[in-house]
Amino acid sequence: MPDGFRSEVREADGSLDATARVLDAAGTDDERVVEAALRPRRLAEFPGQPRVRDQLGLVLEAARRRGSPPDHVLLSGPPGLGKTTLAMIVAAELERPIRVTSGPAIQHAGDLAAVLSSLDEGEVLFLDEIHRMSRSAEEMLYLAMEDFRVDVIVGKGPGATAIPLELPPFTVVGATTRAGLLPAPLRDRFGFTGHLDFYDVADLVTILRRSAGLLGVEADGAGVAEVAGRSRGTPRIANRLLRRVRDWAQVHGEGVVDARAARAALALFDVDEAGLDRLDRAVLEALCRRFGGGPVGLSTLAVAVGEEADTVETVAEPYLVREGYVLRTPRGRAATAAAWRHLGLAVPRETAQQEALPLEDSGPGRFAP
Ligand SMILES: Nc1ncnc2c1ncn2[C@@H]1O[C@H](COP(=O)(O)OP(=O)(O)OP(=O)(O)O)[C@@H](O)[C@H]1O
Ligand SMILES: [Mg+2]
């Protein structure tokens, strides 16, 4: 997440300004403590993402039987869907230690060299936000991932020499919200790439029941279903909303997460019936009211809602596109009829006509990004 965005969700005392962005899918530091407690530890207790889970399970099991480290693993997808959780699970399944660092923390190749040269055989190196690493570190990483070797540069200027240093075999687990930003040579070094997608409601219900149990919160079926349906397909948001509904239930109700508590708390925190939050609605409002439904370029749209383009693109847009409110076209972002209707506005004739086209004319991928 861009730092500017993070700082916006904080109060002066550093706590989460929950009314501002209860749906912000990126976690805050205080929240990370709660999150860590709610993370599934093993693949078998990880609900959802069946494809990625099966594929990853196979890769890990085969490596375990061979007794050698598995291929490097890249996990991509929107914030809060379980990339960090899966990285921890990789290490747990391999019964190996995990070393955690992130792209922004590695600004110089030397930083990476120090981490790499201290790895033990079979260790898992988790590189979060891998798309934010410096170019020179990236190049060092290719070599290390492929040949298990780093060139340590000694000295400066014309007298500088590269001393090759052999590394024991290890496994890189990279995580990124922006797989498209990774240079192809780096992407190619990963033997397995798992793309995480939004969760369906049934999986979120499973996750919420488990979280309620861990938090010692009583929750009934209707309450859990209400929260699951309004969590933007994102476990982090589901867990966060569960805690806010629990708060409401403890203050105004009997302490039970039920449908009444869920509806009241979600309304209080600006989560609408479709599960859209303030940023989502701001994007739709800008698209429809300011730009007549678009198409409009991402950066123009971002300025209109007062956010960074990166935030609009990684946080709001994937879900709006997937739910069919926004289309990504070569000329920019455009509102669908569903967006106009969601805001309670009349659907412009042109939009209605376009969407009423028989399917064979427009193709099945009309709503695809
Ligand atoms: N499949 C899942 N089952 C249960 N809980 C999950 C699952 N996926 C994610 N979570 C919960 O959601 C929270 C966020 O997950 P995680 O930190 O793994 O997301 P992330 O993809 O790494 O997000 P970011 O891109 O912001 O780093 C965690 O607290 C975890 O408990
Ligand atoms: Mg993460």
From TrEMBL:
Pfam families attached to this UniProt entry: AAA_lid_4 (PF17864), RuvB_N (PF05496), WHD_RuvB (PF05491)
Protein keywords: ATP-binding, Cytoplasm, DNA damage, DNA recombination, DNA repair, DNA-binding, Helicase, Hydrolase, Nucleotide-binding
Reactions performed catalytically: ATP + H2O = ADP + phosphate + H(+)
KW DNA damage (keyword) present: yes
Region spans: Small ATPAse domain (RuvB-S): 200-270
Keyword Hydrolase: yes
HAMAP family, per database record: DNA_HJ_migration_RuvB (MF_00016)
Subunit structure and binding partners: Homohexamer. Forms an RuvA(8)-RuvB(12)-Holliday junction (HJ) complex. HJ DNA is sandwiched between 2 RuvA tetramers; dsDNA enters through RuvA and exits via RuvB. An RuvB hexamer assembles on each DNA strand where it exits the tetramer. Each RuvB hexamer is contacted by two RuvA subunits (via domain III) on 2 adjacent RuvB subunits; this complex drives branch migration. In the full resolvosome a probable DNA-RuvA(4)-RuvB(12)-RuvC(2) complex forms which resolves the HJ.
Protein name per Swiss-Prot or TrEMBL: Holliday junction branch migration complex subunit RuvB
Gene designation per UniProt: ruvB
